[in-house]
Amino acid sequence: MIDNKIRVLLVDDHSIVRNGVQRMLETVNDIDVTGEAETAHDAMRLVRERDFDVALIDIALPDKSGLQLLKLIRAEKPKLAVLMLSMHSIEAYALRAIKLGAAGYLTKDIPATTLVVAVQQRPQAASTSVLSWQKNLSTLSAGATRRPMKPYPTGNLKS
Fold this sequence. Notes:
- The chain is of the alpha/beta class.
- Helices cover about 30% and strands about 20% of the residues.
- The chain is built from five helices and six strands, in the order βαβαβαβαβαβ.
- A six-stranded parallel beta sheet has the order 2-1-3-4-5-6, sandwiched between helices.
- α2 packs parallel to α3.
- The two termini are about 25 Å apart.
- The model is unreliable at about 125-130 and about 135-159 (pLDDT under 50).
């Protein structure tokens, strides 16, 4: 039997956040958190050792910024979909992340269903962008090639 689960790497320096995100993601049958890291260094070690479909990366890490980690991942695994996860709902952070190759930028105050659907989409860098914060942006900036945001469907969660 072939396992078609989406393999996720979680990178956040707070274990309680990693645990909460993992619980949210594993409410559906097709997502499996197969790696966790609290530093950029540990994340890169896992990226080199294992295969992931999606990486969820906090923008603030103790040893490097999430944006610096994003650059390293893009250089070594350009097809790995990277979703930035942040407490900051500042447009400039999102724009910078997208321009550096992130497939999306999600704020930590989003509903669990939004996070699950964003991961299930298996976004590829520079093809689809997932943006989530209070301001509903449909385009990023002049010169950025992106599709408009689509509303996320709800449902599809296990009881």
